[in-house]
Amino acid sequence: ATKKSLDNLKSSYDALEKDSNEALDANIKKNRELLAELEAKQKAMAAEQDKLNKLKADLLKSSTRLAELEKIMADKEAAMKKLKETLSKSLKAFEGKGLTVTERDGKVYVSMENKLLFESGSWTVGTEGKKAVDLVGKVLGDNPDISVLIEGHTDNDKIIGSIGGGVENNWDLSTKRATAIVTILSANAKVKKENLTAAGRGEFAPLLSNETAEGKAKNRRIEFILTPKLDELSKLLNEL
Question: Are strands 221-228 and 107-113 parallel, antiparallel or unpaired?
């Protein structure tokens, strides 16, 4: 009986040992799987942390560039306000003679009516008009980083026949007048010719209706459109 009990006990022990070994192997396997999973998650977290650090660095870099951009824009705006004030002061003698200086959308506009500049149908600048254009040129010479578009405008009266050597239409007349202004500005050695552009817009950008004589007079004009060079701004914008 004792031997039988001993055999039963041994069998139970063997079974228990087998179960324990199987449980231990299962636990070891599970632990290895958990460790592998943990290692994979740690690698993923490290990769995410690297990505987050890069995003933070990029954000800091972009923020710095944005601050630089805002400063440049503020400086450009202040410079254009100062330019407008300088032009207004220089051209004060021509107030009430068909000349206005305004600022909008970051640009300065100097508008001169044809009564100040040209005889009817002519693109030869008169003495008084040349004085005004020379004053604009003097200011431009002191501001070499300003691009200038000179636009010629007419009313909608059709050109009939030959005028002063031949003008085909209002496009032609407005272009010749704009070019005449560029020629005067270019005579100033301090004015950079590469900053000047002459354009004729004919009758197609009126200020007022051409139904009245007053409207036509306002529409016959030369406009100087002064714009700060934006190369630096464009470069920063591309880097953002």
Answer: antiparallel
